[in-house]
Every structure is written in C-alpha cells, then in structure tokens.
Fold these 2 entries.
Entry 1:
Amino acid sequence: MAVQQAVGMANHPVVTIKLASTSDELMQCYMLRAAVFMGEQHCPYGEEFDGNDYTASHVIMYVDGEPAGSMRLRWFQSFCKFERCVVLRPFRGLGVHHEINAWCKEFARRKGYTKVYLHLQRRHMPMMEKEGFRRVDDRVFNFSDHEYYAVYCELEPVAAAVKLDTEPMVMNRPEDRLDVLGVLEKSAARGASNPHAPRVERRVN
Amino acid sequence: MNTIAQSIGGETITTKLAMKMEDSLHAFAVRAACFIGELDMPYSEEFDGHDFGATHVIAYVGDEPAGTVRVRWFQSFAMPERLAVIQRYRGHNIGQMLIERCRKLAEGRGCNMLYVQALPGDVKYWEKQGWRRLVSEEASSGVKRIVAMVKAVDPSKPLPAVEAPESIVLRSEPQLDSSGLPRGTASN
C-alpha cells in the first residue's frame, strides 16, 4: 500500500497518503490540526497538543501535492485508536476523508490489528456509520467543547499481517512500505564487522 | 520573558522570543490557526521557507500561545511579518505588544527602520500606530495589493523622506534554489 495514488475520475484530484516520517511531514500534520482545531473550532493549544504526539503514528494526506489532511494513530493492546482526523476546509466535499480512513484501516490491518476505536463528534455519526463504525455503548461524553461517542469497527484479518514469525528484515522496513526493500536490508551488504567489539576480535566478512 | 502589566481574565500577557523547538511550534500553530484555518491560505504559502532564517516572537495569555510575529533581518531594515493573534484574544492590543517587542529587538541590534507590507484595508491601523507609507499615496501608481509602510525604530530620530525606491524594497528575497521551497511537499 505505502504511498497511495488514487487517480480516479478525470476531475478527481490526486490524493497521496503516507506515514509522516520526516520532521517536515510531522510539522505538516501538526499545522493542519492547528488550522482546523485551533483556528476553526477554537481549541486551546494545550488541549490540541496533549502530550500524546510522541507516542503515536501520524499520517499525512496530500491533495494535488498540497497538505490537506491528517490523522493520528495510537496503538493499544487490543485496538488501534484513530484520533485528530482533519481535512482542511478547501478540500472538504471531495470525499477525501474516506481515503485517509481507508488508508489508516489498511495500515492497522497490516500491523495485525482487527479493531479500530475512536471518539467521534456526535454530528459525524451518520458519516462514520457508512464506514462500518458503531457505538461501543450509549455513553455520551464531552471534551474540548464537543460531544462525543465511543465507536469502533472490526477489521478483516489480513494474511500478510506482521507476526512473531514475520521475516525479521521485513519487520525492520518503514511501516507503510513493508513490501519494499528497506534501508537496513541494504546495510546487510556491509557484513557484520561488529564495531562494538575490541579491535582484535572484529571480523570482516 | 518580558512581562508587561496587562492581562486577560486574570491571566498575564507576556511576550518572548522563540528559543526552543516547542516555542517555534507555538508560533507556527498560531499562524496555522489564523492563516490556514481562518483565511484558507495553502500550507505551502504560509510556511514559505523563511521560518528558519527569522526571529519568532510569541505572546502568551497565561500559558496559552495567543499571538506571534516573525521578524526577518536585512541590512537596512527589520521586517515584521506574519502577525497573527488567535481570534478569542483579539481586541487586547496583543498585536501592538508584539510589534513593540520587535521594535525593541531591532533597537538592540542597532537597526533604525522597521518595514511592513500591509493590506490596503489595514493602512489606517498602521498609520494610527505611527507608521507611514514608504511612498506617498500620490506618488505610487495604480491599485496596490500590498502597501509598503515604515516606522523609525527610535521615535526621536525620524526617517528621511524616501529611504529606497519601492521597486527595490518590495522585491522578494531571491530563493536559493527551487528545492529549498516547501512546495511539492511530498518530495521534500
């Protein structure tokens, strides 16, 4: 899956989705969230950037090359939690949120997850029902000035999911490009000179 | 941190220079909220590649980032730009405090002129704050999308009538090369 190029109808914009893997891409994720949550929904900075950004995976979506949407994923034992999903205002109405949702679901499946959990603003329930989400229970709670439901969705297990017996060097690849040769596999060509060992004990293969 | 005797709802308003990564993120988030969130600026125009050659000033209300301005430094002037104040904190002169902090900073560096590019609709605001048009309205030709305005760093040393031809001062800084731009994003 990795970098997804969805080229559909003639007028449909080019959508590219990837795991944020550089500080520039991470900055783009943060700034889109600031634009939507702080700028449009008046969320304070301290609530938007809540301390969990450095325990999460961040996904960035480009529409025609311009940063347009983002999602944060946190990994628990029995489910993946989708959070901080945004699409910038000029890119709404194109249906691109379905594409970032679908990408993130595939990403979680490949990591072996079979359940997605999220806190959904009440007004978005009809939209997410179409994507297979239903309520965990009938609790309604609120934070940052919105009302939320806890919702979840089952994911179909995938044969290629990462497990303990997955090829070790596949596990080392960038997580959104598990089917592409990773940088550490290329390093294997250098052999194991054991640079930590005292000079006399080093082997050059 | 430079504390100014002013507050909103019991929370003190302070300004400081961005010194750490997290401070810069505060400045960037405020700009994203105002320019991308409210005004629908594209990300690649807002974050134009000049952020790491500039000084960032941030205003806080209590611990909350409330406003920011970016200053770029040239030999003959300092240029405050990207002035932004979060919507709910407007109307408390935070913008003015940020510009004053820029002025003091420029003073400390021995700079004698501040230069801004204002929207035509904002010219009256800047004039009230003691700024003047770089080129008088009569002398400038045609309808302008932006108006160049200047102010002396030291109010007791007013600027000479004309500092530089508008065409020179308004020219944007040359880019090093196209790969240095945040455009295209996915590839850089």
Entry 2:
Amino acid sequence: MLPQDKRMVGIIGFGKRGILHASMVNINPDAEWRAVCDTNAQLLTCMQNFYPNIPFFSDLDEMLEQIILDTIFICTPEDTHLSLVKKLIQKNMNIFVETPLADSLASSEKMVNLISDKDNVYSLGYYFPFKALFQKAKDLLDFGILDSVKRFRASLYCTLAQSSLCPKRIIANRISSFFHLIYWLFGPVKSLYGRASHKLTEGRSGVTLIMDHSSGLMGLLELSWSRPGYPLPTVKISVEGTGGTLEISDDDLKLYLYKKRGGFERGWTTINISDLSSPSRFFLSEEGYYEGNSSFIESCSEKKKSAIGWEDGLEIMRMIEAVQFSIDSNRIIFLNEAK
Amino acid sequence: MEKIDKIILGSNSFEGVGYLSRAQTRHYIEFFSKKENIIPILEASFNLGIRSFMCSNNSNILSSLEDFKNSSDLSILAVIPNAYEYARESTEKGVLGAILSKAKKIDLYRKVRMGLQAIRKIQGIITKDLLTILTNLMDFEMASFHSYNVPGVILHGQVTDLALSSHNREIFDVYQEIIRERYKAQPILATHNFGILLPKLMEWNIKLPIVASFNKKGFIMKPTQEECERLLEKTDYYIIAKKVMAGGRLSPEEAFPYLSDKNIGSVVLGIGSLSEAYHTLSVAKSAFQNS
C-alpha cells in the first residue's frame, strides 16, 4: 500500500481511550498514527518516549499546522467536542468522537448541523454493535426469528464509586452506550416515561423507564450504577415475540422457539460468546474496540458512510434529555418534543 | 534459560478475572477476597506436585502466600504490572491516577516489607516519562515478591500488547535487561496477539518465552487460530499456553487432547474451586505424562 493510501491520523486527548485508539491505529495497515494533542503537558511528557516517533502537541492549532492529517479521533471530555469539531470541520477531516456525542442536546444538534453538507466520514464510539454476540442477536431479530416482536425488558447494572469520586462523564458514557444498544436493536423511540430518585447522572441512582418505540414495540428498562455486586457493567435484555423469546446478555444468547425456525430447533438453544468467532485481528482491552476503530478507518478509506454516525449520537442525546425531562416533570415525553 | 515446569497454577480466578460469565467474575471477586478460599487450592495443587505459581501482587494472593506453609518451596512466576487492578481504577481516576492510588493504598506493614525505596519510586513517578515509570513500576511490584523464589517474571499481556502496538523495541529491551540484571530472573512476555507478537520479536531478534492463548475453540487467538497454530508449529520459542480451556468453556478432558501434538512447553491453568483443582490438575498431569 502506498503511504498516501493510508489514513493519516491524529489523536486529541491522550487518556485511556486516546491511548487505546492510538495503539489500534498503529497496528492497522490502512492507517498511520502521526500526532497526538493533549492539554495535559505532564501526561505528554510522561508518554513521549514510549512513542518516540510521534510528535506530541499541547496546542491543537500547532498540530494542525505542522502535521498533515486527514483523520482525527477526539477522545476528550464531551463538553469539549463542539468547539473541537468547529475547528476540525474547517480542515476537512474525517472525525471519530468518543461518546457521548456532546454534553447536551443543543451542542449535539449543532455538531450534526455542522456536517450536514460535508462529505467526510463522521463516526462515534459505540462498541456493542461490534461485539460478535450482540451482532448475532441483531441478526436474529432482523431475520424475524421471534416472528412478531411485542415487548422487551432490559437492564444495565454496575457498581461505581460514590458520586463524589465517580465523574458524571463515566455515568453519561455508560447510559449513552446502553441507550445506543437499545436504539440499534429496536429502532427509534417515540415516547418514554422515567422515574428516578436522583438526577440521571448522579452516582447513587437508578432509573426505571417505559419506552414506546416507533415500531410499536414496548420496552421496560432498569438502569442502576450503584447496585452492589456488579463490578463490571452487566447488560441483560429479554425480548418476547409471537414465535418465542430471546435473552441477550454479555455472555450468551438464549433462544426459545415455539417451533423450528431459521435453522434453530423448537425449545431452548444457547449460543455462548465463545461459539462465535470475533473477526477482529487484534485484541486490546476488550472485544469491540479494535473492530469499531478499524471499521471507521475502513469507511474513511472507502469514502463510505460509517456504521455508526453522528445522527445516531444525536438520537441518543434526545433519549437522554427526554429521560431527564420525564423524571423532572413526572410525565410521558414524546421525543419530538425534545427536538 | 532455567527450566520451566510443565504445569503452572494460574491466579486469574483469585484476582476476580473470569471469562465464562459476568456471574462467574462476580463469584470469583467475592469468593477469593478471602484468603481462606485461596490457600486450600494452593495446598491441593502442591499436594498434586505443582510447584510453579503464576501470579500478580494482588493483596489477597500475597496474604495467602504469607500463610501458605509451603510457599518457600514454590517457584513464583511474577506477573507485572498488576494490570487488572490499574485498569479497573483507571476508569475512574485516569491512568496515572490509578498508579498513584495504588501507591497510597499500601499499608504500613507492607511498606516496611517492601522497603521505602520502592515506595519513594512510585510516589515520584508523576514527573517522569513512561519508560521510567515502567521501570519504577517493575521495582515497585517486584518488591512484593522479594521473600519468594522468583525464577521468571512475566510482562502482563495488556502491557505487552500495548508495547507491541507502539512498535518500540526499546520497551522490550529495557524490560528484559531489568529482569535479567536486577532480578536475575527469566523475562517472559504474555500476549493475546501471539500471531502478531512472535513475527515482531523474530524481526527484532528478541528471544523470550511467550505466554499465549491456545485452545481448540480459537478463543482469543489473534489474528486467527490458523495463523497462531501455523507459527506455533515452526517456532523454536518456548511457549506457555494459557486459556487452554477457552475460559472455562471446555472441560479438561476436551481441552488437553488439542494440546498433545502442539509445540507447547508448559500450560498455565486457572482454578476456581477445590474440586476443580483436583479434577483439572489430575487430568493435566495425566495428559502431560503421556505426551
């Protein structure tokens, strides 16, 4: 491959996610990591001789002036995304943003408006669609394995530190990833009703939600990030249809069919995560990261729409704002109200 | 290279790391938070003739080793750094915050045992570069093992793979030099990306034992199971197989025949209960005696 055929990548924000993206780009034959920018000079000093051939910048303008780049990963806190994107749009870059898309619905809308007439690739870091087990669940639902799907129940439990120690952005990131999974599996939400004892992103809280999807599907969701005994974020989804049920978790899929369908026998079938081969050629940290990263690079190289776009991120921000609005007002919120 | 035992007891389960399910992980974290549940497994393994133990400086494991009467007869293969602990903490505190937090949490008793020099090093790292941090981290973590026989030191897979993706051979050179010179031990690399790491080490002319996933399901064998098996067949590197039971999805009876015709020097086996210790280790001993 000629060097000009490789994506020339810059990383903004060199925390945990920035380091992961840089590492994955560095192993991808279709991309070349060329520079990194972070305002934390201490961190840059610390990391510099681990990556001796990579220029480190604490000023974004300097990086953009001095290094030829066509693709950027933004791995900074969400309240910086809009201002960074405004600058990068002018430079005609492909942009990958870590989630959530922005710190508010208004900022997210501005970001999507900024790219409305642009031809580059704009993606963001939701990883459930790149995990083999969730991809299989999506394939089965799209195939119509349950015939007509009527309703689902879904939960996300984890145990985070007390609110004073747990940055809101971690909770915001987990909520937005979970909402994206629901949106990706079941489509857009028409209306929702939520109850919670605290603000959505407060540490000692949980939320119960009823969602009506545009497809007519109804869902009951429970989220808690202070539930004891869940050191790892744990997802469970149970889908009921006229043809059977599908139970989805981080570990396996359990399918029950009333009659033989789609190559599956009547009764229970369990598909374990190890039964599905991940197509990823590199493993770092967790399944899905390399796949999401390389899918974006591939979209940039082939100039095609990314698997997950900023419009999806905007829809998730609408859901999050609607949930908070519903909790505050104690009423059903139609998502077009949040538009 | 000092001879490495055929069968090595692993410590993932003791550190709350499980691959079967979230429920298993939760069980391991709770169950093995008590050293009373770790020590019987160390005893059972010892009684079955297992003399090598691969572990990090997890505080529950260190406490168990202190109370285990035969610990001086064990060969400890130390895994550094304790990446799972840093990874968990770094979600909330950032990468450097997690390292500093670890230093602050060490109780006075352990500080005295480790020596003040190691503590000073970790407290001063924030102003230094990452390679210096890594070398200081090695000193800091190795101090936990100073009273044991440590013939080998394994660079944690997540760190090896991060270093591999940096394409910076100096990291591997610094690592092996420190382990050989300062600790008179065999440097070993763990990885989840055997098929990418091995060709790179050969290109750099770095020859070290490698701990890598090998199982008949191809579980975490990157870039592909076929590529890993092809490289394994021809290599003269010493290979220690891990995840041989595909994270608990294969029984020992299903898992070991796959390994019997492979170019594998040792296996490391994680154990989740006393009954599992007797079952798995007995089948492993039988399989390796016949191979």
